[in-house]
Design a protein that fits this description.
Elements lengths: L8 H13 L13 H4 L42 E2 L20 E2 L12 E6 L5 E4 H4 L5 E8 L16 H5 L2 E10 H8 L11 E6 L7 E4 H4 L4 E6 L2 E2 L9 E3 L12 E7 L14 E2 L5 E2 L8 E6 L11 E10 L5 E7 L7 E2 L1 E2 L9 E9 L4 E9 L8 H8 L12 E4 L5 E4 L3
Parallel strand pairs: 3-12
Antiparallel strand pairs: 1-2, 3-4, 5-6, 6-9, 7-8, 7-12, 9-10, 9-11, 13-14, 15-16, 16-20, 17-18, 17-21, 19-20, 21-22, 22-23
Bound molecules: the ligand Nc1nc2c(c(=O)[nH]1)N[C@H]1C(S)=C(S)[C@@H](COP(=O)(O)O)O[C@H]1N2 and molybdenum atom.
């Protein structure tokens, strides 16, 4: 688009304000000549890009703001760090791999499929080593699941801090995984040697320097855990554990071991670093609570939000957000525009998948008055997402992990949104 045809920001605002005064959502009057309608544009005067130039498509340059971002002060080094999914700028529910948050304890590693090995040992009838090609010969399944780091929203315990939903809630992604049920691999090794499975565990560890080991109760291991090698139809990206990662539906992201290399059947939890000094919840009295695996129901409005101000003025407004629960399906989401005094039921984009992101909408006619926007999720167990006050009453403020409280955005008359707390 050349400079002359580029509408200035001011003209855009005025134009859309006029449109909002009419009753048609989002449509401008066709009475004034719009050069984008009346003139032949550059892109119609030349031929476009040939198919030989994009063997693998990347986002167009105008979408270059839709990227993962870091919070610099959060960790000492990018090797042991986290970046955040731009959930403010995504729609629907599936997270593209290219902008799905990453969390590494010792950096992402490059491993060839040919060098991949997965060992199952411990209390099994015959210890086994699987190659990548071996895994491909087991019956496989496809499921959409969210992966949320237990530290998501962890910087908000003491007060509203980070001014963007990408940073407050972006340690989450949601992909369609293809993999082999862990159950099938354990049965291949034979669980007879383990005896009564009720009090047995598996210890899972990665091939990276951190090894990121975690203990998983046998009941979960035999339920819905997947040994996954595809996400959203393609190979896992290096940063998500190529060639093979563990998918532990509904449970904290730390257990989703990347570059998984070993699964040991044992009669006790291993009590590794990642499940003792880390990923435990420090309570009000200083004691630590462990084994808080499930990610409780949570929701957040992604737009409007601090990174997604309202730019069209008053009139029709689409309020859009995400809800999820590690216990199963999201059954209901309510939205409040007055900081939790009154609530309206949101419309679910589609019936929620189990342990996966659910998109919700509230389509309103905004009168231009400031709003205190909140969303509140409910899951199939009847659990209702708590307020920040309720969560602090139960847990104190010493925690980092498992903050699933209701988030508030203050939206002023100009449409600018800010991270706030209500009391
Ligand atoms: N091998 C290995 N697995 C790992 C980690 C790691 O550092 N190494 N990080 C864990 C943590 S804390 C989280 S939250 C998830 C993040 O998965 P992602 O990087 O695909 O977003 O991976 C988990 N699995
Ligand atoms: Mo994590």
């Amino acid at each position: 688009m050349d400079e002359m045809h580029k509408p200035s920001r001011r003209a855009f605002l005025r134009g859309s304000a006029a449109a909002a005064a009419g009753s048609i959502a989002g449509a401008a009057s066709a009475q004034t000549a719009d050069p984008l309608i009346t003139d032949v544009q550059d892109w119609a005067s030349i031929t476009g890009v040939g198919v030989d130039e994009t063997p693998y498509g990347l986002p167009i340059e105008y979408e270059s703001h839709v990227v993962r971002r870091n919070v610099e002060w959060l960790t000492a080094s990018p090797i042991s760090s986290i970046n955040f999914t731009p959930i403010h700028a995504l729609e629907g529910t599936i997270t593209p791999q290219g902008c799905a948050f990453e969390r590494h304890h010792s950096g992402a590693i490059e491993m060839k499929k040919d060098d991949y090995r997965l060992m199952i040992n411990g209390l099994v009838d015959k210890p086994l080593v699987f190659t990548y090609a071996d895994l491909e010969r087991f019956p496989r399944e496809n499921h959409v699941y969210f992966c949320e780091c237990a530290a998501n929203t962890g910087m908000e315990w003491a007060g509203a801090q980070l001014n963007g939903v990408q940073f407050t809630h972006g340690m989450i992604h949601n992909m369609e995984y293809t993999g082999v049920p862990l159950r099938a691999l354990l049965n291949e090794a034979g669980l007879g040697a383990a005896g009564d499975l009720k009090d047995k565990w598996v210890y899972v560890e990665g091939a990276d320097a951190s090894s990121n080991g975690r203990s998983i109760p046998m009941e979960k291991a035999l339920d819905d855990v997947l040994v996954a090698f595809k996400a959203n139809g393609e190979a896992l990206r290096m940063e998500h554990g190529y060639p093979v990662r563990l998918v532990v539906p509904g449970w904290e992201g730390n257990m989703w071991v990347k570059w998984i290399r070993r699964i040991e059947v044992s009669d006790a939890a291993t009590e590794s670093r990642e499940e003792t000094s880390k990923y435990t919840d420090v309570m009000e009295d200083g004691t630590a609570r462990k084994w808080t695996w499930v990610m409780d129901a949570k929701s957040v409005i992604t737009s409007p939000s601090p990174q997604m101000p309202i730019e069209h003025g008053k009139g029709p407004l689409v309020i859009s957000g995400l809800a999820w629960s590690g216990h199963g399906q999201i059954t209901r989401v309510d939205v409040s525009r007055d900081g939790g005094i009154t609530w309206e039921p949101a419309r679910l984009g589609k019936q929620g998948d189990t342990k996966a992101l659910t998109r919700f909408y509230l389509d309103v006619d905004w009168d231009g008055a400031p709003m205190l926007l909140q969303a509140r999720a409910m899951d199939e167990t009847g659990y209702v997402q708590p307020t920040k006050e309720q969560l602090r009453d139960a847990r104190g403020e010493n925690s980092v992990y498992h903050n699933n409280c209701i988030q508030t955005w203050y939206v002023n008359a100009e449409g600018i949104a800010e991270n706030v707390e209500v009391s």
